[in-house]
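Blinded run. Sample ID left blank on purpose so nobody reads anything into the name before looking at the predicted structure. Input follows.
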Amino acid sequence: MQRLLELYESWCGSRPAGVEKLAGAGSNREYYRMTADDGHSVIGVIGTSRDEDHAFIYLSNHFRKRQLPVPRVLAVDSDELRYLQEDLGSVSLFDAIKGGREADGRYTQMEKQLLVNTIRELPDIQIRGARGLEWHNCYPQPEFNEDSVLFDLNYFKYCFLKPVELDFHELKLEANFRLFAKDLVAEKSDSFMYRDFQARNVMLDAKGKPYFIDYQGGRKGPYYYDLASFLWQASAKYSHKLRRELVYEYYNSLKHYTEVPSVRHFVERLSLFVLFRTLQVLGAYGFRGYFERKKHFIDSIPPAIQNLRELIQLNVFPYPYMMDMLKRLTELPQLARIEEPALSRSDGYKTTGTNVYEAHLSDGPATFSKYDNKGPLVVRVYSFSYHKGIPKDDSGNGGGYVFDCRSTHNPGRYEPYKKLTGLDEPVIRFLEDDGEILTFLDSVYKLADAHVRRYIQRGFTSLMFCFGCTGGQHRSVYSAQHLAEHINRKFGIEVHVTHREQNISSVLDAKDNGKAKE
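Blinded prediction complete.
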């Protein structure tokens, strides 16, 4: 610590006014926030491996020259075991999306946008960051190769399989490991493999811009690895749908930096790295948890086993003995099971067409309730006068949408239309020639379509739409009638339409058993 203080003093000209030790993670390095009298702070690092520190320092300087978002290295001790780096603050992406994790993977739009921003930046450091990089500076080796794969697979074997006392045939497993390793390194790559790309290693500035840290284990290697590392992080609880969306964002971003393979090939290669990364992290969790007794890593084992369980269900990996052994592993009673919706081959991380992991209806509902799967859906649409109040909901569901039509041009102001309603042709022509009601309904249709589609998917039975205007005679009647006909025509479901102030009711019968015609 004394030499770190001396390094700071030689850089700053004075000793720090304050020193705060920061919590560590899986690394043995020590981090300190060192603050000057004026409040400006830097991060001081004490490492245990000169080669590892050298890799971080070299990569940081190289990436800064490439104008990539990484911390500046400010000062380095002569033996490279201590250095000062730019303080990027205290908010990591992991911290910023904490709410989504704690809500069992139900991330808000703001949290999702932070994830999208980060995944779009990943190809920048992988592809542009690799240009001109002198790979011999990487630690512990310059390139991802078969030996490094086998090292990690054996790490999994000795630090996880053996401690949980799973019986397996070592020679058969080793043969499958070697075949797996050959497949993983079958394609050469000139990109930078971050190797520990996860939400904890992304810092956010005040505007939410991502900055990358802890890349000292990076080397030349396939870009699939980092994508798998980030999206299948055991504790993140990313839904299958969110993973697909983020892979889609990554794939499209990657196109700006290099020629990309076909969608089918991309997904097949990615699946191999997802499996490899899952086994790799289980090895780390076994060592850090079972041997070092670190609670965070022990707590991460059940979600990692759930990831493995879902991968096995895909039934796409050509390593029969290894997959059988892994299946038996996921069935061990001591590895607590996390109950989640089953992942099938059709809605996992495979895809068809030209889009990667694009969301689709088979993702199923985000939440479940006692009202699911009752069906069929019946929609009720009302027109009303605000002077007489919003229509009562008799379904017991608390109503639905209420739209105010009073911002649109009112034909009731003109003598020829005062005794007519929104069902009469002269009023219809007036409203449609004017056009304001059409713009208004365009927005209503978008909301209604999404809601009706979702309710059909979940098997809900009741949904209500209400349109109000001054007298409940012209604009609200036109809007209610047209929405009712739109829903009935598009989705084929039963729609009840009531023009309350006109004492008019009708039923648009269901067609095609309530299935959408789109």
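Unblinding after everyone has recorded impressions. DSSP finds 15 helices and 14 strands in the chain.
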